[in-house]
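Following up on my earlier thread - several people asked me to post the actual chain instead of describing it. Fair enough. Here it is, all 226 residues.
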Amino acid sequence: MPSVWSNAAAALLAFAAFAASAADKPVNITADLPAVEVKHEGRAVRIERNPDNLNQIDADFALTSRPCPPYCVQPMQIAPGVETIGELEVLDYLRRMSAGDGGIMLIDSREKEWLQRSGVIPGAVSIPWNELHPAQAEPGAIADILELRFGATRSGNLWNFGTARTLVLYCNGIWCGQSPTNIRQLLALGYPAHKLKWYRGGMQSWKALGLTTVELKPPAKPQAPK
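Reply from S.P.:
Thanks for posting it. Predicted structure:
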């Protein structure tokens, strides 16, 4: 029987052979798409995959067995009518946003601690799950977000979402409940399901593909229209 050491040596040789064969090979997003230019906080950002063929995922996203609850596997469909999307669809929404489509918003639903640790997808804005949760948000804060940031209108207690933005929401990954919480809260407020898109893979999938992230500045406090 082969020894543990011989198995380990064979594994090392196999990895070395892979490293030699993979070195300096191009890392496109798709076969004919090397990168996507988007805007983040007014500046151009090039989203591409890490060109190092031996790059590995960040340690924060390498854990496989986070305790559940609260880090439980999320379903593929979070709610009826809410579309689950992947990286290419996120990139398409970002391209449309960067081309001037103001009817779309990419939302990072994670708490601030995670933003500092792992950055955000370029073009995203931070609206943590607790800012849309009635038990967590400050009085009037949810209404301000709906009106000033999402473009909804209201008459008395009735909300009209006809002109509201399409929201693309994500958090840390398929084990993260922060963007699902935001989506469920928005649905409870009457936000149309077809205007909510869920990037289920979130930062773990984004990082696993070596895609570009950026640091996020604290958002300015929304001002009422004059």
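The chain has one domain: 4-208. That should answer part of your original question.
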